[in-house]
Amino acid sequence: MTTPQLENETPQPPSAEDTSTKDEQEKQMKRVMAGVIAGVIILLALLGLAIYFLLQPATPTDKIRDIFIIVVALESLVIGVALIVLIVQMASLINLLQNEVRPILKATNDTVNNLRGTAEFLGENVVEPVIKLNGYLAGLYRMLELMGIKKK
Fold it and tell me: How far are the Cα atoms of 7, 9, 15, 18, 70 from residue 12, in angstroms, in the given order?
């Protein structure tokens, strides 16, 4: 468990190495995204070109069938990759829940139980005697009023 940070401590600014590493990661992520987008555009262009040539009247039916089988196979590959990414993300989420959220919930539950105990202690040892004392003083005050010693 980590130690809590004191309120008067200020966080240290990121070092030059951390900043350069972050910049490199951002540049690499932009390159990967550009590559993916270019790949999708090329794939769509090829698909459009294939559809154009398949719609020509002289194209035999068996070629059309073969092309669609290939397209369905590629689609299955894409779905398989998406499922793998989904499984990895689910594993990451489960890891996050088990290793980070559960300890936070446990600490919160301990804090609530501690506050509940403190409230019960204060109720029994501070509030209850004060209420009893007020009751006794009110009874004494009323008795003095009835005896005529104290006027309203």
Answer: 14, 9, 9, 12, 56
